[in-house]
Design brief:
Blueprint lengths: L1 H28 L20 H11 L5 H13 L13 H36 L4 H15 L2 H12 L17 H35 L2 H8 L4 H39 L4 H11 L2 H29 L1 H6 L4
Helix pairs in contact: 1-3, 1-11, 4-5, 4-7, 4-9, 4-10, 4-11, 5-7, 6-7, 6-9, 7-9, 8-9, 9-10, 9-11, 10-11
Length: 322
Amino acid sequence: MRTALLQRVLGTIPTFLGITFIAFALVRAAPGHPLAFEGDGGLRQGAATAAERREYRRLMGLDDPFLPGYARWLTHVVRGDLGDSFRDGRPVRVLLAEALPVTLLLSLPALLLGYLLAIPIGLISAARPGGLLDRSLSSAVFLLYSLPVQWVALLLVVAASGSGLPIQGLRTEGVGAAGDLFAHLVLPIACLTYGSLAVLSRHLRSSMLEAMGQDYVRTARAKGLSERAVVLKHALPNSLLSMITLFGLTFPALASGAVIVERVFGLPGMGKLTFDAVLGRDMPVLMGAITLAGLMTMLGLLVSDLLYLAADPRVSLRGRRP
């Protein structure tokens, strides 16, 4: 297991280099710069002087050749120096450290809630495939999956506007209770949960139907075990292994979906920070956000691998040398 774990950790290094390379290339090739924008979306009022433009190019390494510029930027990233924001002059790592907990506060509960709801829905659908209940649940989850997150978010805002449920921000000014924080997170978490619920429940249904046709399930039935025992003790544990694999893909998807949700509900998370950086051409913040998003994706995949190694000993044995 240690060998398999080491291989997976080392495998993240070239992935990280690829992510940073693409982030640097995209931002460097992007047209415009922050000094060309006025008002709230830009960094200053009025036109930029030639000296300001030269200083901007020097700070961003645009006067250097591509590979030396990338190598210099990557060296700073490895040291934890992501530069300073052009908007307010604060270090990018401080801005990311403030925004990331808000996004995790949305994504992690939404992911947990999605799994908790998807498992019983998938089990019920797989119990009698093709039945009325299965068709009803399938239609419901497909309908949820087809709804765009921005439309659902706006619909929830309109629906909750007269209910007393907060629809903007993370806390009510002057109120520090945990209940107030929970009330502000109800709508955003619900908005992030419905999409993952549809994907996870359909995947579990397919895995359960495949498992129910395997030899070990037929053997369990031949031994006289009840259908409940066959499903819960034999088919379900093996079907959940594939759900572990989905964790590494679902978590980054939730984090990316939070970009829209945070913008609609006015939450100061990674989504809002990235969106504002794009509008204001705040390149250091944008590059830092892209790099952090890549790291979150790699972390999700690594955690998924570790959970799979812990759940299936056969996988860990493949990682050992003979």
